[in-house]
Amino acid sequence: KLDLEPMPVQLSVQELIQQIPTDKSELFSYTINWDVIEKHSIIPARMAPWVTRKVEEYLGVPEDTLISFVLDKLRAHCAPDA
């Protein structure tokens, strides 16, 4: 689980990045603390704009249906292989 206790912003970002697994099997089995995600409104505040940018970057145009699908999966706390 990610440790998101308050700490200096720069330090917390660096430590958070270092905690993210890079191996696919480790990444897909990583436990997400959904309570923290919801408590801090991470999906609407951070993930929605990021997903929107990435979809537009990959497809060249905003695709609302795909963006909604991905965000719905995040809101439902789906496993990455679901």
Give a brief rundown of this model:
The chain has 82 residues and is mostly helical. It is built from five helices and no strands.
Overview of the structural elements:
The protein is an all-alpha fold and 82 residues long. The chain has helices spanning 9-19, 24-28, 34-39, 42-59, 64-75. α4 (42-59) packs antiparallel against α5 (64-75). The model has no long low-confidence stretch (mean pLDDT 86).
Question: Which helices and strands, and how do they pair?
Answer:
Layout: H1 9-19, H2 24-28, H3 34-39, H4 42-59, H5 64-75
Helix pairs in contact: 4-5
The averaged pLDDT comes out at: 86
Helix content: 55-70%
Describe the global form.
globular
Q: What is the number of E strands?
A: 0
Point out poorly predicted stretches.
Answer: none
Radius of gyration: 14 Å
Taking the alpha carbons of the first and last residues, their distance comes to 20 Å
Q: Output the helix-strand order.
A: HHHHH
Task: Give the DSSP E fraction (strand runs of 2 or more residues).
Answer: under 5%
Number of helices: 5
Structural class: mainly alpha
Major sheet attributes: none
